[in-house]
TrEMBL record, chain A:
Entry keywords, A to Z: ATP-binding, Cytoplasm, Glutamine amidotransferase, Hydrolase, Ligase, Nucleotide-binding, Purine biosynthesis
Pathway where this protein functions: Purine metabolism; IMP biosynthesis via de novo pathway; 5-amino-1-(5-phospho-D-ribosyl)imidazole from N(2)-formyl-N(1)-(5-phospho-D-ribosyl)glycinamide: step 1/2
Reaction(s) catalysed by this chain's protein: L-glutamine + H2O = L-glutamate + NH4(+); N(2)-formyl-N(1)-(5-phospho-beta-D-ribosyl)glycinamide + L-glutamine + ATP + H2O = 2-formamido-N(1)-(5-O-phospho-beta-D-ribosyl)acetamidine + L-glutamate + ADP + phosphate + H(+)
Keyword Oxidoreductase belongs to the record: no
Protein name: Phosphoribosylformylglycinamidine synthase subunit PurQ
Organism: Candidatus Abzuiibacterium crystallinum
EC number assigned by the record: 6.3.5.3, 3.5.1.2
CDD domains with a match to the protein in the record: GATase1_FGAR_AT
Gene: purQ
tRNA processing keyword on record: no
Protein origin, superkingdom: Bacteria
SUPFAM superfamilies noted in UniProt: Class I glutamine amidotransferase-like
Subunit and interaction comment: Part of the FGAM synthase complex composed of 1 PurL, 1 PurQ and 2 PurS subunits.
Compartment list: Cytoplasm
GO cellular component: cytoplasm
Automatic annotation (TrEMBL), chain B:
Gene name of this polypeptide: purL
Protein name (Swiss-Prot/TrEMBL): Phosphoribosylformylglycinamidine synthase subunit PurL
InterPro entries assigned to the protein according to its UniProt record, in alphabetical order: PRibForGlyAmidine_synth_PurL, PurL_linker, PurM-like_C_dom, PurM-like_C_sf, PurM-like_N, PurM-like_N_sf
GO cellular component: cytoplasm
GO terms, biological process: 'de novo' IMP biosynthetic process
Top enzyme category: ligase
Keywords annotated in UniProt: ATP-binding, Cytoplasm, Ligase, Magnesium, Metal-binding, Nucleotide-binding, Purine biosynthesis
Pfam families tied to this protein: AIRS, AIRS_C, FGAR-AT_linker
Record: residues binding Mg(2+) 1: E96, N537
Length: 229, 745
């Protein structure tokens, strides 16, 4: 599997994603500057976290107009893999590759902490290796991660098995106490129809090495590596 | 201000309005050989302000040890100190205050404080890898304090999170003495390869002077002068002197500048912080002993009608001055174009030593650069021992009854916002971006790894200012010692310190005495640990209408651990491990959080610090880590033994461990409150696995540090002799809820 990390002005998890690919997973990876018109030949496109364009208008709203995004959309529409993490997820929403929108966290504060996740969909290229009832300990770090969509969309996401991750308690229960930001249905990550595009608020790249207090995020990279090799 | 003012004759009132004395003005006239115009007067007034010139503090700062074999850049030479850590790598770090702006506009004041210190680091070519902060507020039961706390934490989060530098720790105290005058001290540390070290120096006649980054506006006009006076009711009228931060702009500037230092196109780089274009221009010229000429007509602006006076004194954020090699201008312009940033040639390096400022070709200022920097006035201020000290240091223990219910006292201390969990604060900071944060906030020291090496950097910011109030000398010593102890507890070797010296008005002899005594105490401790001072910042005039703050000399201690796998956490690891107390406990209740919180007293002599004992403890801690002889190590500070033991239980949220302390021989002959809540120095709590007993004890013996096996780690309850018996879950709840519960009111 070969990956690239798209660098927008204001991306700040680009180095972290590159590091996890290159040093932890030992996979080929390169950076792509947002002003480029074409992606290199890669299997996986990573849209990293950060504050693209300062998030001054609306998170991800300007980044979607970056020249590279046209090719990212083409890449996605041709069925190849795209993962958007945190701000990358917000960009995927703005660009229409995923449905819904982000609201400010219900606490109205930025939140950075470890939370618990479970994979709802366990058959996608991103989640294949996750065991049933496996609870993942992965950090979040965002001010706008309160996922919102209308009732029809939510129903559709549920029916089509497109909810990738939900916030859960340590023991795996979906409840309000486990929801850090007010997201609809405790949603932490969703897939597109073809299930080749994943957007998620938690940062698996921050939880892929034991020294960083959790390596539960690694299973996502391993799923991808197994599926795309 | 209009153009008319340019022609304004300099009157006494104008001189006074610039915060200059008549003598200083006469000295300016002498240097220039003529009277200055208004722009020149403005330039002198900011450069000779305390904030830029250290005119009142320099003679005292000379007491600090500033030499060390690892120092690549020493205090005062550049924007920040630089220390070699081996493998061709070095760290650049500094702490700086943004107290006055934060008092007037907490969110932007704190945000731009973070932005400013980050610029100080990358202007030297280093990549900023982590931030910390040290904060002081009034009582959290005051609504004004909540407003300040929300604003300051929000501002730090806004800037740090957006720019993508993790805020991985810090310290905070709440005390009435900071009411109306909060302290916001921001620390940043960067990593650099030796060969990328960039100086803030101009050289090479004919080289180009470039202005890069954000445009210039009227924001922050005269901020350096503003920071050099006391806060008053009228301070809110100074709001234009507070700058507005744009972390996205700074992120672009940061990336562009770090790309720039990898080219061979530049000879120097200097950020525009306090006193903006003025300071960066004259400092680069003075450091390089060359002349610099700039033309303001070329400066990118965000407002119309700005006169030279305003352009020179503006403190608009996110701007830098870059000295570019002749013929390499295109490289620089291309690079900044990539990042959609301004890069405008505004002048040239010249023969001579003048800083010459033109406005569309017409000279508006012509000043010997060194007269603004090296030749600023210096004052030996009067000092006298404060009258309050005699009374404050008196403590009659007979008059203080020993507590009847020690459980209640412990819970009260854990509920004190100065001691309680700071989770409400640090969860608003992105403390994990860059994926180097090994110790999550809450440990004695912050610890970050350096990728591609085995090394880690440990940092602790510390200052118990109540000690400083009761005994500035001892308080200064303890601030350094506690920071060294915290760094060493993690297993790292203390290397050097930066400091932020927050005091009241230095024109008052009693304040100046506090300042000098604090510096003396810090200096002595720095010598003992062999940790030189690499720089920092002095913040005077921290007085509100209610009076001066506590003397608050904040220390930022930086250490290195050669193998991060040998790090030592602050929390107990598993039930069954043995618990030891290191050090000696004395009858020392003066200046404790116990006296303050439970008895409402700021009284007594602070605990005494014996530097020989402290250095022995620090060396032992480093050796314990190196030999993997312990499971955890936590220093004992605010709240004493009982609070420290409780804190050791909180390693995993919602899963606190317990402890059973049955051996109280070490407390024999002491009052129960001294034993539990006294703050005797040079102590720590260590836990070890059963099979480490021999190694650990022989190590402690070899470093001549007293040790006592006092109990063991258990699962659910804290038990200390007959004094304390409390469920761990209860302790955790109180500790965790103290700040959120007050903030939600």
């Amino acid at each position: 599997m070969k990956a690239c990390v798209v660098v927008f002005p204001g991306s700040n998890c680009d180095h972290d994603c590159w590091h996890v690919m290159h040093d932890v997973m030992r996979l080929p990876v390169e950076y792509v500057w947002h002003k480029q018109n074409a992606l290199p030949k890669v299997d996986l496109v990573i849209l990293p976290g950060g504050f693209s364009y300062g998030d001054y208008l609306r998170t991800g709203a300007i980044a979607r107009f970056s020249p590279i995004m046209q090719d990212v959309v083409r890449h996605a529409n041709s069925g190849r893999a795209v993962i958007g993490i945190c701000n990358g997820f917000q960009i995927l929403l703005e660009s229409g590759l995923l449905p819904g929108a982000m609201l400010r966290n219900d606490s109205l504060r930025f939140i950075c902490k470890h939370i618990y996740l479970k994979a709802v969909n366990r058959s996608s290229i991103f989640t294949k290796n996750i065991a049933a009832n496996q609870v993942l300990n992965i950090p979040i770090a965002h001010g706008e991660g309160n996922y919102f969509c209308d009732a029809d969309t939510l129903k559709c996401l549920e029916q089509e098995d497109r909810i990738a991750f939900q916030y859960v308690s340590e023991s795996g229960q979906v409840n309000m106490d486990a929801n850090p930001n007010g997201s609809a249905a405790n949603i932490a990550g969703i897939l597109n129809e073809k299930k080749n595009v994943l957007g998620m608020m938690p940062h698996p790249e921050r939880a892929s090495e034991a020294i960083l207090n959790s390596k539960d995020g690694r299973v996502i990279w391993e799923s991808l590596a197994a599926a795309l090799n | 201000m209009t153009n008319m003012l340019q022609e304004t004759p300099i009157t006494k009132e104008i001189i006074q309005a610039h915060g200059m004395t008549q003598e200083e003005y006469e000295r300016v006239c002498q240097i220039l050989g003529r009277t200055p115009n208004l722009t020149e007067l403005g330039i002198y007034s900011v450069m000779w302000s305390e904030h830029c010139s250290y005119k009142n503090s320099k003679p005292v700062l000379k007491l600090f040890p500033t030499e060390g074999k690892n120092l690549l850049v020493k205090a005062g030479e550049e924007n920040a100190g630089c220390v070699d850590i081996g493998d061709g790598l070095a760290i650049v770090f500094k702490i700086e205050s943004h107290n006055h702006p934060s008092a007037v506009e907490p969110f932007q004041g704190a945000a731009t404080g973070v932005g400013g210190i980050i610029r100080d680091i990358f202007t030297m070519g280093a990549r900023p890898i982590l931030s910390m902060n040290s904060l002081r507020f009034g009582s959290l039961d005051q609504s004004q304090t909540k407003h300040y706390l929300r604003g300051v934490v929000g501002g730090i989060a806004h800037y740090g999170n957006c720019i993508g530098i993790p805020t991985i720790g810090g310290e905070i105290y709440f005390d009435d003495y900071y009411e109306g005058n909060p302290l916001v001290n921001a620390f940043c540390l960067g990593l650099i390869r030796h060969d990328e070290l960039t100086k803030g120096k101009a050289s090479g006649v004919g080289n180009s002077v470039y202005y890069v980054g954000a445009t210039t506006g009227r924001d922050g006009l005269g901020g350096a002068s503003f920071a050099s006076k006391e806060l008053s009711e009228a301070s809110h009228e100074d709001r234009p002197a507070v700058q507005v931060g744009d972390p996205f702009m700074e992120k672009l500037l940061l990336e562009a500048c770090l790309e720039l230092v990898k080219t061979d196109a530049i000879v120097g780089m200097q950020d525009m912080g306090a006193a903006g274009l003025t300071c960066s221009t004259c400092e680069t010229a003075a450091r390089g002993s060359v002349g610099v000429e700039i033309d303001l007509v070329k400066v990118p602006r965000r407002e119309t009608g700005m006169v030279p006076y305003e352009i020179m004194l503006s403190e608009s954020q996110e701007r830098m001055l870059v000295i570019v090699k002749k013929g390499k201008e295109e490289i620089v312009e291309h690079l900044f174009e990539k990042w959609d940033l301004h890069a405008k040639k505004i002048g040239e390096v010249k023969d001579g030593q003048q800083m010459r400022v033109l406005d569309n070709g017409k000279v508006v200022a012509d000043i010997p650069a060194k007269s603004l920097t090296d030749e600023a006035p210096l004052y030996q201020r009067d000092s006298s021992r404060p009258v309050y000290l005699d009374e404050a240091q008196k403590l009659d223990l007979q008059s203080i009854p020993e507590p009847k219910d020690h459980n209640e006292v412990l819970l009260k201390l854990l509920d004190s916002p100065s001691i309680a969990s700071k989770r409400w604060i640090y969860e608003q900071y992105d403390h994990m971006v860059r994926t180097d944060t090994i110790f999550l906030p809450g440990h004695d020291a912050a610890l970050a790894r350096i990728k591609d090496t085995k090394k880690g950097i440990a940092i602790s910011t510390d200052c118990n200012a109540l000690y400083g109030y009761l005994d500035p000398y001892e308080g200064g010593k303890i601030a350094v010692a506690e920071a060294a102890r915290n760094v060493a507890a993690s297993g790292a070797r203390p290397l050097a310190i930066t400091n932020c010296l927050n005091f009241g008005n230095p024109m008052k002899p009693e304040i100046f005495w506090q300042f000098r005594e604090s510096v003396k105490g810090m200096s002595e401790a720095c010598r003992a640990f062999n940790t030189p001072v690499t720089g920092g910042n002095v913040s005077f005039y921290n007085e509100s209408p209610k009076g001066a703050i506590y003397p608050t000399p904040t220390v930022g201690m930086v250490g290195v651990i050669d193998d991060v796998d040998k790090r030592v956490p602050s929390f107990f690891q598993k039930a069954g491990d043995l618990i030891y107390l290191l050090g000696e406990t004395k009858e020392e209740l003066g200046g404790t959080q116990y006296l303050l919180t439970v008895h409402g007293k700021r009284k007594g002599l602070t605990p005494r610090l014996d530097l020989n004992r402290e250095t022995a403890l620090v060396k032992l801690m480093i050796a314990m880590a190196e030999k993997r002889a312990v499971q955890s190590c936590h220093d004992i500070s605010d709240g004493g033994f009982a609070v420290a033991i409780a804190e050791c239980l909180f390693g995993k949220r919602h899963h606190p461990l317990g402890a059973e302390i049955k051996n109280l021989d070490w407390a024999k002959g002491l009052r129960s409150d001294s034993a539990l809540f006294g703050e005797s120095q040079s102590r720590a709590i260590v836990s070890i696995a059963l099979n480490q007993k021999e190694d650990f004890e022989s190590l402690a013996r070899s470093f001549k540090v007293p040790f006592t096996q006092i109990g063991r780690v258990t699962e659910k309850e804290l038990l200390i002799g007959d004094w304390i018996r409390l469920p761990s879950a209860k302790l955790e709840t109180v500790y965790e809820q103290a700040i959120p519960r007050r903030m939600s009111k």
